[in-house]
Amino acid sequence: MSDRPEPDRAARDEIERTLLDWMEEDAPATDPERFERLALALFRFQFAACPAYARLCLSLDRTPDEVERVEEIPPVPTGAFKEFALRCFPEADTAKIFRTSGTSVDRRGELHLDTLVLYEASLLASLRRSFLPGLVGSAPEMRFLAPSPEEAPDSSLTHMFEILRRAEGDPASGYDLRDGHLDLAALEHAADRARRDDRPLVIAGTSFAFVHFLDDPKTEGEGRWQLPVGSRVMETGGFKGRSRSVPRDVLRSDIARRFGIDERAVVNQYGMTELGSQFYDSTLVDPDGPRRKQGPPWARVRFVDPESGLDVAPGEVGMIVIHDLANTGSIAAIQTADLGRAIRDEAGHEIGFDVIGREEGAEARGCSIATDVMLEASRQEAGP
Amino acid sequence: MSRLEIDWPDEGAERVRAAEGRLRVAGEALARRHFDERLAAVAGVLEDWTGADSPWRRELAAALPEETPFAAPTIAEGLESALRAWHPSDFIACAEREIAGACVDGRRALVPFDWTTVIAGGALPMPTLLQSLLPLVVGSPVLLRETRKDPVTARLLARSLAERDEGLAAAFEPIAFPSDDAVALDAALAAPCVVATGADETLASIADRLRPTQRFVGYGHRFSIGVLGPALGEADMADVASGLALDVARWDQSGCLSPVFVYLVGWDGQDARRFATVLDRALEDVAKTSPRGDLPMDQSVSIAQERSEARMRTAAGSGMLFEGAQHTLVLEPDARPRPAPLGRFLRLLLIDSVDALMRALQPFSGQLSNVCVAGFEAPTGPGPADGLSPAPSTEGTFDARPADSSFFAALSRMGVSRVTKPGSLQTPPIDWPHDGLPLFLPLARFTDPFVAGRRLV
Fold first, then answer.
1. Model confidence, pTM
2. Complex ipTM, two decimals?
3. Contacts by B314-320 with C-beta closer than 8 Å and gap 24+?
């Protein structure tokens, strides 16, 4: 690795300062020039600081001296977070490790962080803009259908909820998933309080927790869960390896009906442990526009041909690659296993994107998908 | 002028019930025919499909490229090799062994189910062909629910039955209805005997809809592997690689018989790298005559993911990645299970010993279908464990197996239903015990015809 320069910590500090300024703007706006400059600078730093990433880049002949555009920065597949410590700092400086689910059979992906400042600033900025329009500063009660930080200390999702709770939630806010079981009484009391005080309730959790909630016969009953105007729900995560999957639109309408809220107040979050930024349905920001995913301006989503790695034509389905500048201590360019498509307005401007489901393709793969099923089943058995 | 549209939600179920009525009538005539006569008639149909230059096989090979993602030459080769490996004489012998053998002393009599529903699955035509014919031998007429991935095979089979034997043709009805037509599915699942192929969730969902008194035979998703021992000589590498390449290329690795991992037991890194290079070339070569078909986008994404991860491992000096235009080969540094994206994506896994292999395979117990083996010394001790035949009569001899027959016993306990040589994974004999089951017995019903020493049936 002699052709790899020494990591320039001062350069990273400068990038982070610029990013924090961006995140703290009242309405952070898309700024392609600023993004491009920061992304290339970050690539130069990460190439120097992360040996595993540098080796990948060298094998592809994509080094900072040769890469001139963001599109040329090599992305790492999400699976690589299971096999490599993709960190850009000395191990001793590790402040936090978030882990994906996993088992002894299949390793867990890990996001290593030496600081949470940028990570938390990024997630809060996105949550405030996309999930809390009209509620920022009003300290609504929040209920989380997810394990608490004590129960899941290495869950990035729980950490996100905790940061949200501390920053914007009423002190009565809390977690209603304990030891894998929903605390329906706590959730119902919160709904009662919200109705009594006529204050919006904010509910967020994993998609599968909502399915459990909706399936539970104890949650049936006219008006029991009716929430006041301004209430909203965020669900996130998929159904891979679960005994039951529910189409996203069906889950959304079922949630809306159960809580007596507009479907536009039910948003899906697209995120992953390996990312510092998240993407949200647009419906609380733009209720009259098409539902699509939107993210912060310091994260760029591309759709690429899986074979060539080149961007697909506008509007075509491609593999999602994310350049997330909030990943300063890890790797910013991430190749996901998801399919997506850019959404454009009538003027042709990109206004967000869709994540395309993969269930049909999975079925088409036939018999030998058993290996994936086994891996996933093992993961679930040992999971929380 | 407005158009009148009538919503007829029971259309699919009505067609199923109408077919059931016809099948019940045909089934009475079928059941009256002597077992030997039915067997001979069905074997004749099989002969029509498996014989040299079969017009039915030709017609199927011509029709499938329009309906499935496979390339025409790959289909033609896959059909030719698989169906030519089916010998009607084995079919007859197996039926006699299982059914006639069960009744040989006259203490039991075969009582066919009134009708059998077969829920086809996947895009491969061979299971559809075989599962359609088996109930006819035991005297039960067949309603075959077509898979949407193959709307050709069952209809062609119906025509071939009609050409050979009107009675058999009347006892076989292919039918198609949408996967979300639960009413039609329930009507089809009213049969006293139900056979289904599919994912575990699909089989569980079907089983949930059946009464305990119904017979259910489910064939789940499995995968196959290769195991190459340290005795594989330089001279044999090319042959073994060609065989494995063929196994991977056939049906683009999409069936239960497709190998997804090949374990290199006791190999050193240098030999493994040399073999990987030979195998990469063999995969390239086989694609010239059997090209890969179109891949769905999600599968391309999976392959891209796995290639990228392998590229990172390779860049870190751990393993090797071969990226062909139509295949991927990864030499992994260990035997850790990794996803199998298929579409001609094969992993070579280095592992120290047979014992270590068994430990590595343990998580897949029950999911393994066939295993191809080479590169072990010939056995010196007793033969393979009961119930696991490494050398079925029609597959030719195969002498490459570990000396210790407990290897086979351990594989059989994991649910492996066939051990063969590289190049033969996708061409099992017709009497291969799919998922460990006999061929005919699961579809048969017997009664004791004696009351107080007097035969009643």
1. 0.87
2. 0.86
3. B314/A59, B315/A52, B315/A55, B315/A56, B315/A58, B315/A59, B316/A52, B316/A55, B316/A84, B320/B273, B320/B276
